[in-house]
Every structure is written in structure tokens, then in C-alpha cells.
Amino acid sequence: MSVTVRIPTILRTYTGGNAEVGGEGATLRDVLAKLDADYPGIGARILDESGKIRRFVNVYVGEEDVRFAEGLDTPAPQGAQISIIPAVAGG
After folding, report:
1. How far apart are CA 5 and CA 9, in angstroms?
2. HSE-CB of 2 using CA atoms within 13 angstroms
3. Are the CB atoms for 15 and 42 separated by under 8 Å?
4. pLDDT of 1 strictly over 80
5. Residues in CB range of 10: below 8 A, 6 or more apart
6. Which Pfam families match (predicted)?
């Protein structure tokens, strides 16, 4: 399924500065694998060594936070917008 992936500023060095890129896959896991294949290294910034979404990275499929859905197995329907949003902290 064809989707759009919104890339946060901090990861745009991997996508040649593009804020949005196309993606494909039936699930979020598939989309992220394709994203990493197209833009090598970006996957390691989103997923940890065990293959889980990093603690300070939020991922949405449409309006849904995948942590409260099916995680990496969240379906990625045709035309969905996937947003990768790094958490912001400060003090």
C-alpha cells in the first residue's frame, strides 16, 4: 500500500532534505523497512537494537499513536499519512 511518511527535521539529512517521502507496506513495520531500504540508516534512528520503536520517538498512522494501537503491526492503509515525531524535552 502506498503511504506518505512525514520526516522530522532532525532526520531529513537521510531523505535529502525532504519533509515527506513516499512509502509502501501493509503494516508500519513494512513501511519502516522500505523507508530504511530507500534511505539507509534512518531505520536505526527510529527503531532500537531490539527492533522496537525508540522510547523518545512517537509514530502515528493517521491520527493514531501506534503505541496505543498495534505497534509496528499497525496496518498502513492505502493513502495513510505516517508521522514520525521525536519527543521534545528540556529543562
Report:
1. 13
2. 2
3. yes
4. no
5. 86
6. ThiS
